[in-house]
Amino acid sequence: MRISTIGLLVAISLPMLAAAHVDDPKPAATPNPEPAPAEAPARREVPGFEAPPIPDGLPIIFDQYHIDLGEVDDAGEVTVGFRFTNTSDKPVKVELLNYCHQCATPEIQPSVVAAGQSGAVIVDMGVHGKNGEIRVAVTVGVAGYPDKPVSLFASAKVVPSVRVSPARIGLGEVKVGTTASEKVKLIIAAPGVTLGDVFTDNTLFTLTTEDEKKVLVNGVERTETPVVVSLLPGAPAGRHEANFTFTTSDPQRIANLNVVAEVMPSLKVEPADVGRGEISPGDLVKRQFNILSRSGDTVRIEGFSLAYGQSQSDPRLPGVRGVRDLSVNMQTQAEGHIVHVELSFVAPDVPGQYRVDARFTGAAAPGDDLVVPIYFAVSR
Questions:
Q1: What backbone torsions phi and psi does residue 323 show, to the nearest 5 degrees?
Q2: Nearest 10 degrees: Cα torsion 341, 346, 351, 352
Q3: Diameter of the chain by CA atoms?
Q4: Has this prediction a pTM greater than 0.70?
Q5: How far apart are the first and last CA of the chain?
Q6: With bands split at pLDDT 50, 70 and 90, how would you rate the model's confidence at 39?
């Protein structure tokens, strides 16, 4: 069912490269025949990577050996720069040794770095057509140090450029007769794409939007629109789930949102499991429990009904003889916000697993029913 049409014009600027920059020259280091390299920064562990150790004795030091960009949109260009500094008193040449075959050729700017100055290894992450976790590995070296390669890693999680974040939410436990809301973000980072109709499969939930705003993430401008999802106050007790589909001007780009809410009746039973037990045919069975108000108000029982039947019956038994003869008596005693209930019944003469459902109707709101299942087994 289509519930609304939201016209959002997305203005996306040309993608900007998130490349590292080269700092202004620093004063030359004091001459030293064997300059000690600067202390390496702590490395973040990369799941799935067995990174080789950082070689000692090199005349350069990197600010980071692994850069995690987090979430990046699948639209636009995403680059990352590994900044390094020449810690020696002589110019050094940084060379590209190896890189993943699916990536664009990394650039080293500049490749020859004077003493005390900085450069960067620029890597194109190549996010187009990708989805999920991506990792890029690049190996560089310094001329004159053939046995000391340096491994650099970049990682990111590529997400759709049209999406709802988060894509799944829970409204928690909602008291019957009331409502609950949650806010998510509708994100559009695809150039020229606009939002179309929104559809849902459950009209117990409503959707409204707030003012959009434009943000710049990893060099890409995107539109973020707050979306408020609410459950109608007339929703009956039980678990309710809705799926929203956001269409766009690009048929290939849609966004989905899943919402779950648990509407709790104003009444509850203690103990929750009224009892299981094995009895003999014809035995008198009694079950006692209490019905309470969740809000502490006086309990009002406006209706009561019973349903019973045989479940998981043995297919070898001839029908359900005796089940229809089940007789049930109920006695209640009210004490403020508690109703004491005692059910008594005679076990059927047909062995099997049985369930009796006692349904109590409250007065808080339409559909505010409480079903108390009572299980028992009749043995031979």
A1: -65, -40
A2: -20
A3: 104
A4: no
A5: 53
A6: very low
